[in-house]
Hints:
By secondary structure, the chain is an alpha/beta fold. The protein has 7 helices and 11 strands.
Amino acid sequence: MGLIEVKDVSYSYQGKYQTIEAVKNVTCSFDEGAFYAIVGHSGSGKTTLLSLLAGLDLPTSGEIYVDGSAMSALNRDRYRLKTASVVYQSFNLFPLLTALENVTYPMQLQGRSKAEAEAVAKQLIAEVGLGEKIWRRRPLMMSGGEQQRVAIARARAAGGKIMLADEPTGNLDAKNGNMITNQLKLLAHERGYAVIVVTHNEELAKQADAVYMMQDGQLTTLAKEGQHESDA
């Protein structure tokens, strides 16, 4: 059994004129220590699926299991605080907090002391390749690549093993995009995370261990290294 099991999941919502079926009967799994990419055109349902994996909403039907527990039975706020973290295209750092304060924030929410949180945050910032000069900088004083690396450090601060990323390289140039891709691969392959990325970036998708395609709300597994396409 994978860390995350998605079983016959569908999700629909009411649009202005009709009911929109954003996700349709999706079944798949995600393991620790692996890097996944979900690709597809805008409106295909991939971001909706990522939101369901983050516990931001529940499926209309079907179930998502995390380490054997049904998402519908979990405290989803606690799940996002301690188990699953999300990294966004727009970085979503707190603009009035420094890099160090952004990374310590989730740990302090968990009740850690300021001193302990800062010590861990400094280590996490170093592990994404940033030095002490960044500690006191606010987001507007950082480049896009620096902001996204701080966002990854903050996502790791919660201590969970699920990393969800929505177009994490979308606002970055090729050099910084490759740097972020390498950071996500390292989290999966060296630190045992289940890393799940929604992306339009073909180069990022090529680095994934498995690539899923969303089309009209349905999920298929894309072939890699000459294998044939098969249903997920």
